[in-house]
């Protein structure tokens, strides 16, 4: 059962108006999340006096928990609460959690509230995107990349605002600004309700005979996603270090002086979302041209290239860290800039593409649940990143960054193997009943 499209025929910026509402809601929600996250590792190590190993482990547990709770939250949204109410309740819990962090005694309570609220919010908002488009709408393929720009616009603003307030004026000012951002996101979502898809009935109300035939066909299509999820878990154990050990290395080893002024270390966290914001339009246009020529890479092919790119970025950091430890002095911020250029461009090939892949394979009535399964891989990867982060001091920067390159490289090989074994449909075309087709012996590769 497909939800009714909202405001048919109307367009804002060439897209349905509802995409703008979801875009802006996600922008401010990510502002709150990344604003707090930019401060978290520094707050624990400098204000709360946690050891590096403990701070990295807690960071991994928290960011992992943020992606674990959507598994239950997505089920609740699909089966009981509905997507709209899940977004509103989840956003409210997150706002309370951010404000709670303004008191040191409520540190763990604040983290718990953010994780719980995020569980309802995170799968329920993007699962509404597909209902804005008809099945054959050519804009559908790039919609998730456009949405991902909203994610990173919030991520760009967050370190500049929350990071500056936290480092210069006090940690609690930064956490308070994060909570305010979440409230703005909720306000936009409430005011823009008329532009969103008509609310779905919980999937339990859909007749069983309508679900069963397609559900059986889709089961085989979902099996490759298990392998994708395991590869993404491995990838995220390296990818998630940018806000953890990489942030610590920047604070300790990189010369952040510019024109006689010391830049706040949290500002470096704005580079990734800045480059997402700059690169996405060009990348989406490039993929569209490739699709017109019949040369667009498959979704798994894009993801394998993305993981390989992140491995290359960490190899660059390993070489820079080795040169610095050999006596070349503090690391120039230019090398950090180069790292994030490669890292971000590679990220665009894997994270929004993977989200789109999982969303397109969702059976009717289970959109939020399957998107939550994508976040399960993120949970496991971020949790693993906390364990990997404990090796920072024993291995040293050069050895540690080399390890991260190896982890991302292994994920690239796994995704490449899945790409060879399975043939996911091009993201610009309507998926068939089984969107992942096993490659037959001797069957030529799809371009």
Task: Tell me what you see in this structure.
The chain has 447 residues and is mainly α. It has a single domain, classed as Growth Hormone, Chain: A. 72% of the residues lie in helices and 3% in strands. It has 13 helices and 6 strands. The protein has a two-stranded parallel sheet with strand order 1-4. Strands 2-3 form a two-stranded antiparallel ribbon. A hairpin with a 2-residue loop joins strand 2 and strand 3. The two termini are 33 Å apart. The model is unreliable at 204-213, 428-438 and 440-447 (pLDDT under 50).
Layout of helices and strands:
Blueprint (H helix, E strand, L loop, with lengths): L16 H31 L4 H30 L1 H18 L6 H18 L15 H30 L1 H21 L16 H32 L5 H9 E2 L1 E2 L2 E2 L8 H22 L6 H30 L2 E2 H28 L6 H23 L2 H30 E3 L11 E3 L9
Parallel strand pairs: 1-4
Antiparallel strand pairs: 2-3, 5-6
Helix pairs in contact: 1-2, 1-5, 1-6, 2-3, 2-4, 2-12, 3-4, 3-6, 5-6, 5-9, 5-11, 7-12, 7-13, 9-11, 10-11, 10-13, 11-12
Index terms:
single chain, 447 residues, mainly alpha, Growth Hormone, Chain: A, two-stranded parallel sheet, two-stranded antiparallel ribbon, 13 helices, 3% strand, globular, disordered C terminus
Any idea what the radius of gyration is? 21 Å
Strand order in the sheet with the most strands: 1-4
Q: Strand fraction band?
A: under 5%
What is the CATH topology descriptor? Growth Hormone, Chain: A
**Structural class, judged by helices and strands?**
mainly alpha
Which class in CATH terms?
A: Mainly Alpha
Q: Tally the structural domains.
A: 1
The main pleated sheet reads as: 2 strands, parallel
Averaging pLDDT over every residue, what do you get? 81
- Molecular shape: globular
Order of helices and strands: HHHHHHHHEEEHHEHHHEE
Note poorly predicted spans: 204-213, 428-438, 440-447
Number of helices: 13
Supply the CATH superfamily name.
MFS general substrate transporter like domains
CATH architecture: Up-down Bundle
Q: How many strands appear in the DSSP assignment?
A: 6
């Amino acid at each position: 059962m497909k939800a009714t499209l909202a405001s048919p025929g109307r367009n804002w910026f060439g897209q349905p108006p509802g995409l703008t509402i979801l875009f802006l809601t996600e922008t401010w929600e990510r502002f709150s999340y990344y604003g707090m996250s930019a401060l978290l590792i520094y707050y624990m190590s400098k204000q709360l006096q946690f050891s590096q190993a403990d701070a990295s482990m807690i960071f991994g547990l928290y960011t992992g928990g943020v992606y674990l709770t959507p598994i239950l939250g997505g089920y609740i949204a699909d089966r009981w609460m509905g997507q709209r109410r899940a977004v509103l309740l989840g956003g409210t819990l997150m706002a309370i959690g951010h404000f709670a962090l303004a008191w040191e005694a409520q540190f763990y309570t604040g983290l718990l509230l953010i994780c719980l609220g995020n569980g309802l919010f995170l799968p329920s908002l993007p699962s509404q995107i597909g209902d804005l488009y008809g099945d054959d709408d050519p804009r559908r393929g790039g919609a998730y990349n456009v949405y991902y720009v909203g994610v990173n616009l919030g991520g760009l603003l967050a370190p500049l605002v929350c990071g500056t307030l936290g480092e210069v004026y006090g940690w609690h000012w930064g956490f308070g600004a994060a909570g305010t951002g979440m409230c703005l996101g909720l306000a936009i979502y409430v005011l823009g309700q008329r532009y969103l898809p008509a609310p779905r009935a919980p999937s339990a109300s859909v007749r069983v005979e309508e679900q069963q035939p397609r559900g059986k066909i889709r089961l085989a299509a979902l099996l490759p996603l298990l392998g994708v999820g395991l590869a993404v878990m491995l990838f995220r154990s390296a990818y998630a270090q940018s806000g953890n050990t990489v942030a610590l290395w920047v604070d300790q080893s990189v010369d952040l002086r510019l024109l006689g002024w010391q830049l706040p270390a949290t500002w470096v966290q704005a580079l990734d979302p800045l480059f997402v914001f700059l690169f996405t339009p060009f990348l989406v246009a490039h993929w569209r041209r490739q699709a017109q020529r019949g040369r667009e890479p498959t979704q798994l092919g894009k993801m394998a290239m993305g993981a390989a790119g992140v491995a290359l970025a960490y190899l660059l950091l390993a070489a820079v860290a080795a040169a610095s430890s050999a006596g070349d002095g503090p690391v120039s911020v230019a090398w950090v800039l180069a790292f994030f250029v490669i890292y971000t461009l590679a990220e665009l090939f894997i994270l929004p593409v993977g989200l789109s892949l999982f969303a397109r394979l969702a059976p009717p009535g289970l959109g939020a649940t399957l998107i939550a399964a994508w976040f399960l891989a993120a949970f496991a990867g971020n949790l693993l990143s906390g364990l990997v982060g404990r090796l920072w001091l024993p291995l040293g920067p050069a050895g540690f960054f080399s390890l991260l390159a190896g982890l991302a490289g292994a994920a690239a090989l796994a995704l490449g193997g899945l790409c060879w074994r399975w043939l996911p449909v091009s993201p610009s075309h309507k998926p068939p009943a089984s969107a992942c087709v096993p490659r037959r012996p001797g069957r030529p590769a799809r371009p």
